[in-house]
Description:
Blueprint: H1 3-18, H2 25-73, E1 75-78, E2 81-84, H3 88-94, E3 102-108, E4 113-116, E5 132-138, E6 141-153, E7 158-168, H4 170-205, H5 207-217, H6 233-283, H7 287-322, E8 327-330, H8 331-342, E9 352-356, E10 362-365, H9 367-384, E11 390-397, E12 400-406, H10 438-448, E13 452-457, E14 463-470, E15 484-488
Helix pairs in contact: 2-3, 2-4, 6-7, 7-10, 8-9, 9-10
Amino acid sequence: MPPWRRCNALRARSVRGGGQPAPSLRRTLLLYLGALLAVFAVALLFAARDYGQRAANRSYDHLLVSSALSIADSVALVDGQWQVDLPYAALDLLSMAPEDRVFYRVADSRGRLITGYDDLPAAPARPGARPQLFDAAYSGETVRFVVVARSLASETAQRDVQVQVGQTRRAREAVAQDMVNRALLAIGVLSLLSLALVALGVHRAFRPLVRVERELSQREPSDLRPLDAHVPREMDQMVAALNRFMARLSSSNETLRAFMAEAAHQMRTPLAALRAQAQLALDDDDPQDMRRSLQAIERNATHMSRLLNQLLSDASVIHRSNVPRFVPVDLAGTVRQALHEALPQAGPPPRVQLLMDATPAWVQGDALLLREAIKNLVDNALKHGGAGGLQIALTVEGAHALLTIADQGPGIAPGDAERVFERFARGSDAAPGGAGLGLAIVRRVVEAHGGQIDLSNRREGGLLATVRLPVRVHVEGDGTGTPSAATIASRSPR
């Protein structure tokens, strides 16, 4: 195992060991699906139990009613006297269940016993034309009863008779339990098969994740190619997001490599010149020659310091642009602060005319990046703008804030208007000493904020830099919306 992979594995184990174990998605799915299957199996079991009881009751109730009707058909009224020719075959049907006992009773409408058991429980309601079925406690157990009423007539009278037949519930409970046991076996087999299918389905569903994990674990850290894995539709967004992340990471790595290569190239020349001039100074005996060598060393050291500062600024802008933490920023205040920091602290103060729109200009962005970009624009204008001074204006036009910086210098060649935004690129008539990073930093910052920057020559002479940024937060002010002018004759705009 490569060292970097071993370190990552150890780090992962240490993180997991230091806190609670990470939840398993596979285990969670199996747990919830298993619980769903268990609930479904229990519901099926209760349904089978209910069906078994109803089916057993239906079958035995049919025999019970048939026996009662047979006994009722055997009752006759002769000369006002009841005669019962009890059909024992009807009772024998109920006696086919040896574990059950059978009870019967024949009585007249007044409840006087004709034949049978005299102490059978009465029906909960008065018997009608339809058989009445009910459960009641008798002889120490629950008995199923049916009551049938009939009207009989003779030559001299017409009377009603009630036939009641009962049977214990042992046989029907046994039939219902047998049906439940058979259903339980079937439900158990189906549940096991369903659980196996669920486990197989979860395993197959996670197979694309395993392939993605295996492909990523086998790659080297520098391999940031997009994943070409065939995944389900539900994982397309995750894989696409991962590919976008690797694309951004690859772009950042390429930017970093290009930055390191260009920085090394840019620093190599002044370092070599500085070393050569230092050697010349060591070999010079003439004080004048030594002084000229020391002056050359000082110029090269100043150039290197300036280059190093711009390289560090460029690196900071690259980092903050890749990891944006945007908040509402007052662009007017940012312009004032940047102008204060960019104006030289020594020498004669330059003439700067600042025009501010009374409408507040709030943008969603990074104040440090915006201040760095404006400082580079002001520094570029002061360096190449001559002695005529600067004109800086900030206005709000619709959904955009417009920042313009105008100087009175020679302007820019038509072919350099786009090329000067490239890193380490300089105009054809640029003054010596620059690093060629200022305008590249400005463009990166402006584009990171969703804006645009343009360079153009003024008709009256000089260069006009125009920055257009979207206004993200509108703050109502008390002004009239007309620009106010302030002429700054000192080093500070405040």
